[in-house]
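Trying the structure run again after the queue cleared.
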Amino acid sequence: MRDLKYLQYFEDLLQQADNALVEQARADGKVMVAYTCENVPEPLLNLDRAVSIRLSAPNTGSIDIATYYMTNLLCEPSRALLERAIEGGFNFADCVITPDGCTMMNRCVENMELLQSMGKDNPNFFHEYMEIAFKDTDSDVDLSVLQCTNHVLTPLKEKYGIDVSDAAIRRAVEEHNRVCRVIRAISEFRKEEHPRITGYEFHVLCLATYVCPKYLIIDKLEETLEEIRSREPDDKKWRARVLVVGSETDDSGFIKLIEEQGAFVCCDRFCFGSYPGRVPIELNDDEDALRQVCRHYIRNCHCPRMMNMEKVYGRKQYVADLAKEYRADGVIYNQVKFCDPWAYERTLGSSMLHRDFGYPVLSIDRPYNVASSVGQLRTRVQAFVESVEIKKIQGGGKA
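Done. Tokens:
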């Protein structure tokens, strides 16, 4: 297939957190709202002049300094983010908002605050910590509304004069949905027998919507969608189609590694992915927008921190449904090293997807920076792809 016009452009933007578009947004007078987890309702971070940037630490090397403050028992993403903050890589931020999605990320941001790693010259800079629900009930929606009011809307309004009205929230949701719909439309091409986009290309585009100001990339995303519509697919026959499930996946090198072994990544369910993060939010005119946004995030949350049994089993059914919809032959459950919530989820999910739904499953833990362990990961993926391929030949796979 011919190269996508803007692929290199987006790849370059993903090489550092403080990328060219982040700097352009700052020059435009935007308030840069840094956040760390999918459990924060994203549209609420993009109200009025506010622009959300999900923190990532691309090309992570040594994390020794962060390990000194946080110990080597905490997950690599949390240590990588602290290391990058200490290095000055997040100095673009005007505030940081983090939920207690896990204690490790909370410790990360607490250390950022204690070390004054950001906002030294900004008297309005603030850190906020949100309590997040463990279950999916009306009371949990109430909790989310309260937390978003106290830790997102109020400080943004008081510190930066951001419009947090119902009308502003509805506008933000409309802009959010515009991005979601173009990502969903691009994702549809992954269902084809001969896909017009690779899993790696899709991940680059999707990841950019989290770490770049959306208003600066939406036109290029929509142009890319039209480009893909007329793109001629290769005749290449992939050895297998796989669904990738797991925790923090902001390293597109992981998707590239999988596809280099002949497995097409046909769908994703991971942090920084298209499911559930790029599912449009439907609003009605009968309730206030804030409550509806919070309800959407509670109802559509597939994070392992949600502990009611309907959610626990529902997450596996959700993966199985996606695998069926995108015609996956197998599932790769991955967890970044020392991520406790996903360690339990990976163990249970990999067992249930194989036992209850009949999918071949590869269960792996991996470093935050995939480049540090390419050889081992390549060997694991190669063996898995070969086993799936054999099952398909023998007629026992999910072809």
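The chain has 14 helices and eight strands. Worth checking whether this holds up in the mutant runs.
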